[in-house]
Amino acid sequence: MNSGSFLYRHNILIKPRDTIFALSSGPPPAAIAVVRLSGPQAGAALKATIGRLPEARRATFARIRDDAGEAIDEALALWFPGPASETGEDMAELQMHGGRAVIAAVLRTLAGIEGCRLAEPGEFTRRAFENGRLDLTQAEAVADLVEADTQAQRRQALQQLRGLLGNRVEAWREQLIRALALVEAGIDFPDEGDVPAGLQVQVRSIVEPLAVEIAQGLAGAARGERLREGLWIVIAGSPNVGKSTLLNRLTRREAAIVSAIAGTTRDLIEVHLDLEGYPVNLIDTAGIRQASDDPIEREGMRRAREAAGRADLVLWLVDAAGPDVATDIIAAVKEAQEAKAPEPARWIVLNKMDLVGESNRRQLANVARRACGPDQPIYMISATSGAGIEALMEALVHRAEYVFRLEPALVTRERQRLRLEEVRNSLNAALNKMAGGQGDELVAEDLRLALTSLGRLTGRVDVDQVLDVIFRDFCIGK
Description:
Elements: H1 3-9, E1 19-23, E2 30-38, H2 42-50, E3 60-65, E4 71-80, E5 91-98, H3 100-111, E6 116-118, H4 123-130, H5 136-147, H6 151-161, H7 164-188, H8 199-219, H9 221-229, E7 231-237, H10 243-251, E8 269-275, E9 278-284, H11 295-310, E10 313-319, H12 325-338, E11 346-351, H13 358-372, E12 378-380, H14 389-403, H15 414-435, H16 440-458, H17 464-474
Parallel strand pairs: 1-6, 7-9, 7-10, 10-11, 11-12
Antiparallel strand pairs: 1-2, 2-5, 3-4, 4-5, 8-9
């Protein structure tokens, strides 16, 4: 049973649907505009605007007319009778010229047809879900695909749309239904000859590997969620070490004000960056020093430290031409440790290398290595001239690849992670009760909770299937 019939049976859909329409292409003016319709009056609306119903699933030349019969435009019309359509309902599409006047006239004409109204945000996808064409994870993937800024985000969203998580959940759900059916058969029909003995052993053989598999799926949840949001990289350091210059160099535009006056940056400056297909949020921060009498500067330093503490990577800049580089490096490492940036996600970046003489560079590298230790990443750059930036960018790409490494993340949203955590916790509770010799009723309740959480994950909950499995497998009542 699909989710559409489930919702209808539970009186969620209690009235005939409106037919919805909307501009589904980009904002005008454009070469082509696409207007879609979905609902019981889609065919009638198409007849009213072009005078006929085209052959199903075949683009047809048509003249669009308003309610007074005046021609609006020449276009292509398509007709998709349900339920074999994207939303599961009758659908129609008009592909016309993308001028503002053309679009406005078509939308005004459709709004005047009885039973038709402008769609609400996401309503086409919601109808596809309610009619069983998509599950919730796929519906979320549609939104992620539309919002994807980088190739990595696009690939992840497309994999979810193709059922990466949804198909796995359905497989887990079938196993869980089987396990619950076994438990409930033992509870309700203990004297029936078709009910096998040692049910808990069989149940455990299903639930234990299922719990392990779900735990493995959750292990990559942080990676999937982070790919949707982007990698957070914070540029931090003392005042006037070149943080804003580095931000501008990495983003290849004047995103931050650069000045020789220390303390120019007072607040966080956030820039979104496509780093070789990976999403990155690059943050410039206020200069950090030991003390300040300026309350605005103190607040800026507090925000800088807070941002560094929650970042995926911190680039701690040090003035390589400063009077005491070793002390500055040690102070930067200390700041990184106090900010609790995870290892090895804090890098020391020696900036202004263009001001360091050639003879002093090797000595400076040795000083930095002694101050940082053998495992601390160190990069030498000039944000002004661009020297060393290519190597730093390459390292940032490798870092992004490391964070988003391995196979595609099964879980990409917090909602999905929370539901799967509920499933895992319920399965572990059921296993603990079985190990402790507690009653089948308590085990069944935990399995029911796990099944409910899985149903909430995809939006397809139908506990009647448990009874179907019991009667089919055990021939109860024959």
